[in-house]
Amino acid sequence: YTCVLCNGLQIETRDHLFFQCPFSLACWRYICPQFNPHNNVHHNVTDLKDHLDVPFPMEIIALGCWSIWKTRNDCIFNNIRPSLYRCRRIFKEELNLVFHRAKRNKYSNFKNWIDRFR
């Protein structure tokens, strides 16, 4: 299968879809401008954790991947053209849902981090 996010130019592997695809890179750079992709998913996660410098990096990384995945699936199953705007909107909506379910003392800076994306 080829990647629908970059117009079928590459085989859709896990590493390509989430970290090497130009579309995905643009999504990650929106969340973490300092991110530079590696050829290994574990190095990418570690790099993102280091650059995000927040007490909740795995939530952000998981939601970033989820947003990319939902954008991909919307293209395949609902014929919705992938857009960075849509991926960002999904990310913000999901992030707000996590914030509302979180224990406030554990995520004290979470709301401030979310607000920077408005």
Q: What would you say this structure looks like, in words?
A:
By secondary structure, this protein is mainly alpha-helical. The chain has one domain (14-116). The protein has 6 helices and no strands. The mean pLDDT is 89.
Keywords:
6 helices, about 120 residues, about 0% strand, mainly alpha
Provide a quick synopsis of the model.
By secondary structure, the protein is mainly alpha-helical. It is built from six helices and no strands.
Structural class: mainly alpha
Beta-strand content bin: under 5%
Radius of gyration: 14 Å
Count of structural domains: 1
* Backbone shape: globular
Number of DSSP strand runs: 0
Major sheet: size, sense and barrel closure?
none
Through-space gap between termini: 35 Å
Q: What is the helix content? A: 55-70%
Give the integer mean of the pLDDT values.
89
Q: Any low-confidence stretches, pLDDT <50, length ≥5?
A: none
The tally of helices reads 6
Run of helices and strands: HHHHHH
Walk me through the topology:
Blueprint: H1 14-20, H2 22-31, H3 41-52, H4 57-78, H5 84-101, H6 110-115
